[in-house]
Amino acid sequence: MELIFISILILTFFAGESKNLRFSVYCLIANSLFIVTSVFTMGFTYNITSLYWIAFLDLLVRVFIVPLFILKSIKNRIHSEIKPTISHPLSIALSIVVLSLVYHFMGIFKTMNLPQVLPSFACGITLFIYGLYLLISKNDTVKMVICFFIVENGIHLLIISLIPHLPKFIEFTLTFNFIVAISFFLYIILRLNEILVKEEIEKLRQTKAIHRLEE
Amino acid sequence: MIDIDVFIVSMVFISPILFASFVLLAGNKFTINKIFPVISILISIFCTILVWEKLNLSESKVIEVNQIFYIDGFSILMQLMIEIVALITILYSPQYLAKLYSHRQNKFHLYYSTILYSTAFMNLAFVLNNLFLIYIFLELSTILVIYLIAFNLQKEDLKASFKYLLFINVGILFSLLGIILLSYFTGTLIFLSNISFYVASLPKHIALICAVLFIIGFFTKSGLIPFHVWLPDSYSESPSPITVFLAGAVTKIGFYGIVRTVTVFSFHFQEIQTLVIILSSLSMFFGAVLAFNQRDLKKMIAYCSISEMGFIASALVLNSYIGILGGVFHIINHTLMKGILFFSTGILIFAYGSSKIDEIKKSFGNISWVSPMFFIGALAVAGMPMFGSFLSSITIFFALTESGFLWTSIILILSGFISGLALLRTAIFLFWSKKEQNQILNKIQLPASMVLSTFVLTFLLIIFGVFPEIIYPLLEIATNGIIKMSH
After folding, report:
1. Residues of chain A positioned with their CB less than 8 A from the CB of B147
2. Residue B146: its chain A contacts at CB < 8 A?
3. What is the pLDDT of residue B438?
4. How many Å apart are CA B484 and CA A4, to the nearest integer?
5. What is the DSSP letter of A63?
6. pLDDT 10s digits, B202-233
7. Which chain B residue has its CA at the smallest distance from A142's CA?
8. Closest chain B residue to A199 measured between Cα atoms?
């Protein structure tokens, strides 16, 4: 189980720090596959059938639908992200510190002997905090959506850790909200891209017209 | 409670959902677009009043149904306010949209149905008992509003809506984290009916962590400083009726969240009260100061709104009856004041096509109805007597002073004065200062629905200021509901 969570964190790191947006999305897909595996494993280990359904839903939403949406939004643009606020080497160093420190620190909760809380809690908190750090440091709109995806993955794992205490439909409804939010994000990005492309074409036309007049 | 009562409670949110779906399916047919939303909101208002009657008859002044619904006076007050705001927004919109958003004519049905869905989810959130479910429906209603902010589909609108979506979604996730931690440390689901018991039993450091998470989440939702970044842009870029919907309904969801979580913490932990009052003072002061130099009328009102919301947040965490009463009353007055100001600005935009103060001044003609209503709104923001806002501000002032926060009450008076001054200065510049000699004064015809919507809000603001006993029963039951839940 621990290995799965560490793999999730490593893949999240690649998704967050990769300059190439397409590669980031592929990392997210792999990351989501590990999340599905972790949810399925927890369902099997603790004999909670609702987790199988949640794993299936995750497979559908986090592995297929949302990454496809994001890939669609980067279809007509340059695949490298807009320069972030923090320089790349510093960002990588900070990411490693944030991920390792928070995950290690959150291990304290494991000693608290809380009744029936699943082990995804520490990983969830780590993803949440790391996603927030990424959100602050990035400037690219698509990258921000990827960061939001990471924050949401964190919340998802936190909710999963409380599943024994929750009505089962809460996680399904939260996933629905997540899909709606991501859809709106991508709707806005696509519309913005359209406008930016139009503006670029208009600028190009004007420059050409000026050149013609000069000639 | 018998089934018929459950039916009435459910109709408050089912009616807008049903009618929104009709509007969505029917497309842009004239009568359906304009009549169905109004009918659905009227049904909701009627059912809310019936539930209020039931609540008045009950001994405990709380209606609980199978751990699903928790309805107290504050739920009723919020529902009524959101329904009235939605109704007035819908009535104001047709002419405004027809002139300024004619290029989006084929999407008007989506506009109305989004307002209805959002209202329905808010209404549902206000009667639920489980904190997780409250979060889910508050978030859903918030997300839907994106479509309305970005309705014009221009670059600036899209940027503003992206900012809104990002800040609100991430911000409100903090409150979800707060709920998760609360459940984690108590080992049980948290309901409004038991939140006070569990909060009181928490160790102090855990309670502080949870409360800070709730503060970040719901302060972001309300648009209070330092989590306000989304608010000025969203207010200024969205269509004016939607700005009123944002100011009167969407940001109020944040206050609902504050009342249901942060107020409970502040009743048990003095540190939370102090923290919230410090943050609120920042909002009051900086909101007013930032408003002063704005050249966009909508942004100026947005910053004044941030300042005013600081009043409300500071009052809602005071462990006293008059504090909570003042806060609840100011929620209503804030909605009315901002409604008047944004609707008046909407009329100016309708007439001159801009919300920039200098551009309006250049082309300003003869609009007979706007200036008095804008002046009333500005005077109310300044906290002048005769308006409801005077009574609520003065109540908050006394409550803060009594609770030992004299410095906050001084900031309150100061920021009210600065905000009022900023608005009055702009109003005098726009409506009273001498016009250039060669300027032609055109008589501009305004749609009756727009003027009437603004007039209704102005009338209510004055009525609540002169005859506060009209609104007092609702305020009393809401205040007692909050105090009962939090103790």
Report:
1. 184
2. 184, 188
3. 47
4. 46
5. I
6. 888 889 999 999 999 999 999 998 889 999 99
7. B162
8. B155
